[in-house]
């Protein structure tokens, strides 16, 4: 309880309040730009937080994440282009509403749903994180190994596209994490005689490259089409009656968002569709979805904001990022010399609880700033892609340089950026690679510590009930993406088919 | 380039990456080499699986497109052309920009890169490009040097 109060007191200090307000506003504007995603915005803002106190810096990044989740809906509604992938489902009903002259109402519904989703997810974060954090403290290397394995398999197999590619990307990330001085034996691994690689490849440098440079290159691939933004003429906030009619959908989407966030590797882009589809499935007026139905906007927007709190739970309690944006938050912590993992809740309680309260507070800022700034944010949706691309590059360069003040890091960042561009062309997801780079050391250390404890017997990983369950779930998540599972499903379906037909 | 060829190259790159690490792991003590070796084997298997998957999909697609009715439908779809040469030049500009930062200084090369890139990409009018480039560099200076006091390479300006 003490830590909880300390975090609250910390976050209401004037400078922290300013940082959270500024982060949210920046997120709102950046989210509204179709070329920039929340993940990328956090990666680009990272160097700005280096000079700050860690708690302030991380709070600002989390506030930006929250702000960007709403900001994405502005361009989704007004110009039919989601500002961030997490607002993709908002286009479905948001744009038709704008076409019907109800752009203001669509934005207001989005803002209100975002607020409710965000607040609920903050409450979930505030309650689940300390409990899970406490439980995580009792975990030994065996359990932590199982958690890392589960994190990797889920991220690999759930990421968009082929699971083979997702897992390949993740394992490649794990192998890259092996580069550098081995902390247990002290020998340099895979440095190929270069001094630079002794400290390993900084994953913050890699993720700035992987998440930002491919996007900058994609922005110049094609010529801009001219887009006309719809005008906001009507009042924004929904009436009490309208809100009441959507509240069930908003609550359902919030729960969906929180759970989607909790699962490592799945973020707002998955949650918005999940929330939208479920709202449609449960609705009595299914045919209205896609025609400018406010509930459609509310469903997707509540879900994507609810992801934020959910995704932060595994991030701060276990050191496993719940989404690619939270992977960068972890990077931010590491730059400040704080190692993510179960000790984060105890050794760095001040930072963690400030962050949790900052997420809660950013919802309120998002709502107020949304009411004031949404009309102004329309102008940034018109920034041409070809102007944005060089600016992204400049920010990536300065960001990757300032981490270790090394120009070699900038070259590594560009290298990863070009790799990321090609991976994107082949539909190989880049997020698992980053997560692999984060979890690599944890996996290696816990595996070897466990094997030392059991004098080399692998059966130790099945000695604890928790690790056994986690490893079984990991195996299942792998199997469900293989043809074996599809065959099983087919076989079962065939068996049931005659019965279904007979009814 | 066909989809299969692209995947072939990607698989080959992943294989080479894994094999190089596998061979290098023999220089390490057994304990330190254990996980990397497991990982290299997984990469070898998955990169082959990725190629097999692409091959399987290609064959399936070939079967579908051999149906004349479906083929006509597919070719009708308008496709936005990707400017490959433009991306290549832009990427080259980025590499040159990074290479010149240390000798010349961040605040000299950055506006040059921005102006060069904006003009090459025909992003906006010339005067606007110059204004954006200089304005953004000044913004970076105040944010990173004056406010955050980060050590940015000054090169000739130091």
Architecture blueprint of SSEs:
The complex is a heterodimer of chains A (503) and B (158).
Chain A: H1 2-11, H2 14-32, H3 38-50, H4 54-79, H5 90-99, H6 103-137, H7 141-158, H8 163-177, E1 180-181, E2 188-189, H9 203-221, H10 240-262, H11 268-282, H12 294-318, H13 324-335, H14 344-347, H15 349-377, H16 385-404, H17 407-425, H18 431-453, H19 465-479, H20 483-502
Helix pairs in contact in A: 1-15, 2-4, 2-15, 3-4, 3-9, 3-13, 3-16, 4-5, 4-6, 4-12, 4-13, 4-15, 5-6, 5-12, 6-10, 6-12, 6-15, 7-8, 7-18, 7-19, 8-18, 9-16, 9-17, 9-18, 10-11, 10-12, 11-12, 16-17
Chain B: H1 3-24, H2 30-65, H3 68-76, H4 84-104, H5 106-120, H6 126-147
Helix pairs in contact in B: 1-2, 4-5, 5-6
Question: How does this structure look, described?
Answer:
The complex is a heterodimer of chains A (503) and B (158). Chain A has 503 residues and is an all-alpha fold. Chain A has 20 helices and 2 strands. In chain A, helix 5 (90-99) runs antiparallel to helix 12 (294-318), helix 6 (103-137) packs antiparallel against helix 15 (349-377) and helix 16 packs across helix 17 (407-425). Chain A is globular, with a radius of gyration of 23 Å. With 158 residues, chain B is mostly helical. Chain B folds into 2 domains: 3-76; 84-157, no CATH class. Chain B has helices at 3-24, 30-65, 68-76, 84-104, 106-120, 126-147. In chain B, helix 1 (3-24) packs antiparallel against helix 2, helix 4 runs antiparallel to helix 5 and helix 5 (106-120) runs antiparallel to helix 6 (126-147). Classes of the chains: A mainly alpha (503), B mainly alpha (158). Chains A and B meet through helix 3, helix 8, helix 9, helix 16 and helix 17 of A and helix 1, helix 2, helix 4, helix 5 and helix 6 of B.
